[in-house]
Write a structure and sequence with these properties.
The chain is of the alpha+beta class. It is about 45% helix and about 25% strand. A hairpin with a 3-residue loop joins strand 2 and strand 3. Helix 1 runs antiparallel to helix 2. The two termini are about 20 Å apart.
Length: about 140
């Protein structure tokens, strides 16, 4: 099992890089060429969601991406550090509350888009925060 780990500052301009890296690793892992656009879009949505949550929570920790390949599947995990943040850390004023509510709404829309793109998606948390795990079959898994 090979794993590529990527961490990037929670800035929207880094999401494109994460999409490009994910597509390159997915191609190398044997994900069908016809599915690569879905991989790019799903990773972009998951990373954009994580970036938005970090920004609205005032976190300066990096967004985490793990690209995991084995002989039958390719998995991408996108993690944020938000679930452990208390409301007081995110700010108490009305503007912070409104920003958090907007980010949560956009996050839910992103999850809906991801669910439409990826057949095998799981939204959980790990020791640091939220985690979106997306899995695709590889070409070797469909061979007899």
């Amino acid at each position: 099992m090979a794993t590529v780990e990527l961490r990037f500052s929670a800035l929207p301009e880094h999401v494109r890089t994460a999409r490009l890296v994910a597509a390159a690793v997915a191609r190398r892992a044997g994900v069908d060429e016809a599915v690569l656009d879905e991989v790019r879009l799903a990773v972009g949505e998951a990373c954009s969601r994580a970036v938005g949550l970090h920004i609205s929570s005032g976190l300066d920790t990096p967004v985490r991406v793990a690209l995991i390949e084995d002989e039958k599947k390719f998995c991408i995990e996108v993690g944020d550090d938000v679930s452990g943040v208390s409301a007081s850390q995110g700010g108490d004023d009305a503007r912070s509350a409104a920003a958090a509510e907007l980010a949560e709404g956009e996050g839910e829309m992103g999850l809906a888009v991801i669910s439409g793109l990826v057949d095998d998606v799981e939204v959980t948390s790990d020791g640091l925060g939220g985690l979106i795990r997306m899995t695709w079959p590889t070409a070797t898994s469909t061979l007899p």
